[in-house]
Design a protein that fits this description.
The protein is an alpha/beta fold. The protein folds into 2 domains: 130 residues, Aspartate Aminotransferase, domain 1 (Alpha-Beta Complex); 235 residues, Type I PLP-dependent aspartate aminotransferase-like (Major domain) (Aspartate Aminotransferase, domain 2), CATH 3.40.640.10. The chain is 43% helix and 15% strand. It has 15 helices and 14 strands. The strands form 3 sheets. The chain has a 7-stranded mixed sheet, with helices on both faces. Strands 1-2-3-12 form a 4-stranded mixed sheet. Helix 8 links the parallel strand 7 and strand 8. The longest helix has 20 residues. The radius of gyration is 22 Å and the shape is globular. The chain binds pyridoxal-5'-phosphate (PLP). Pyridoxal-5'-phosphate (PLP) binds next to helix 5.
Length: 412
């Protein structure tokens, strides 16, 4: 091997990479402290209001199955029919030979639900943001995103080569100030926000953000991973929630892996945008089309949502019940409001881990969210409510949560 350049230490064993050792140390520390590893727990059966962990039925508050569509008989039947008709894979990029009728049907239904002209689907929600952001803006452009943006947005920013500026969470006045300062230096500006923030369960003031975007001649992208099927009277998302003109937002992105019971992402918007993306986006043209099973699942979920229009309202009522009971019990639920994402902020990763262990022992599954996913003083348990939970399940869960929190406090 030639001599390494001065200051360069060759690394050639993956097990010795500092980041590899760091993660093993963190897992080992939890085990030394006697808390069991909460990750990769096997959830057997369909994950709805309950699941099966280690052979035990548990009340489940850790799924994105917001409307209970995964496991719904109509969705399961549609998936089986699609696999019988089309096979398990479309076996090619859609641009070449992978296009199936079910793709266009799904995209039409997505556009109808969101109130846009058209939509395009991708095989992964995360990859949708990465490839689309990376494709719409580039060097010489600016991306301004909420400081709590999901990793998929941050990766898209990196790939794009555009300048990236976070603005303080949900602070449209701060966004306005950033753009007033620097908008003039850039060709295109893309503002990226989310419909519901997945750690805190809060909703941005979309009308105010649209005003800022108009004022500064920017483009707006909203990731509706946690708001499609959830917000709005018919589950049409944050656009329906605020009743805004859908054309005021250029890119409505999201994922079908949560309320829509499948796997894959989408971008909805104008007919021109979707046509452009279908012919040019790397993560679409150089990737296989969404599988028949996944397309059928989300298509059936959207149709079922239309057949059961009470589901988003029921989800809202149950979420409100959880939040109210938790607040009455003195639990710190942060900024959560009117969404099915309710954090219980503990402010210490090890204590959050211990609390999730204690709840699991009492038959409740709620994932801990630890540093570095959130700042250490915001370490928490996160509860996802679904439309298939019952009032009794929620009441007993909050009661047990309050008891276990008290035990944790008493232990010091
Ligand atoms: C805001 C947000 N965007 C994108 C994604 C990625 O979606 P998927 O898990 O379907 O790839 C997630 C996943 O949790 C998310 O929360």
């Amino acid at each position: 091997m030639p001599e390494p350049a001065p200051g360069v230490e060759p690394q050639y064993r993956i097990a010795d990479f500092p980041e590899v050792r760091a993660i093993f140390d963190r897992i080992g520390l939890a085990e030394q402290l006697g808390v069991s590893n909460p990750y990769f727990l096997i959830n057997d059966g369909v994950t709805r209001d309950t699941s099966v962990i280690g052979g035990q039925d548990v009340l489940n508050f850790s799924s994105y199955n917001y409307l209970g569509m995964s496991g719904h008989p109509a969705v399961t039947t549609a998936v089986c029919d699609a696999v019988t008709r089309y096979g398990s894979s479309v076996s090619a990029s859609r641009l070449l030979s992978g296009e199936k009728t079910i793709h266009a049907e799904l995209e039409r239904e997505l556009a109808a639900l969101l109130g846009t002209e058209d939509a395009i689907t991708f095989t992964s929600g995360h990859a949708t943001n990465v490839t689309v952001i990376g494709h719409i803006v580039g060097p010489g452009d600016l991306i301004v995103h909420d400081s709590l943006a999901h990793d998929s947005i941050l990766q898209g920013c990196k790939l794009s080569g555009a300048t990236r500026r976070p603005f303080p969470h949900n602070d449209h006045a701060a966004l306005d100030r950033v753009l007033a300062d620097i908008r003039g230096r850039y060709r295109r500006v893309l503002i990226v926000i989310e419909g519901v923030y997945s750690q805190d369960g809060d909703i941005p003031d979309l009308p105010a953000i649209i005003e800022v975007k108009r004022k500064h001649k920017a483009l707006l992208m909203i990731d509706e991973a946690h708001s499609i099927g959830v917000l709005g009277a018919t589950g049409g998302g944050i656009g329906e929630h605020f009743d805004i003109d859908r054309a005021d937002v250029e890119l409505w992105s999201g994922t079908m892996s949560k309320a829509l019971a499948g796997c894959g992402g989408y971008v909805a918007g104008s007919a021109e945008l979707v046509r452009f993306l279908k012919y040019t986006t790397p993560g679409f043209i150089y990737s296989v089309g969404i599988t028949p099973a996944n397309a059928a699942a989300s298509l059936a979920a959207i149709r079922q949502l239309r057949a059961e229009p009470e589901l988003p309202r029921r989800l809202r009522e149950l979420s409100r019940l959880f939040l109210t009971l938790a607040q009455e019990a003195g639990i710190d639920t942060g900024d959560s409001q009117d969404t099915p994402v309710v954090p219980c902020i503990i402010g210490d990763s090890m204590r959050a881990l211990a609390l999730s262990n204690a709840l699991l022992r009492r038959g409740i599954n709620a994932n801990p969210i630890l540093y570095p996913a959130v700042p250490e003083d915001k370490a928490r348990l996160r509860f996802f409510i679904t439309a298939c939970h019952t009032e009794e399940q929620i009441t007993s869960t909050v009661k047990i949560l309050a008891e276990e929190l008290e035990t944790l406090r008493a232990a010091g």
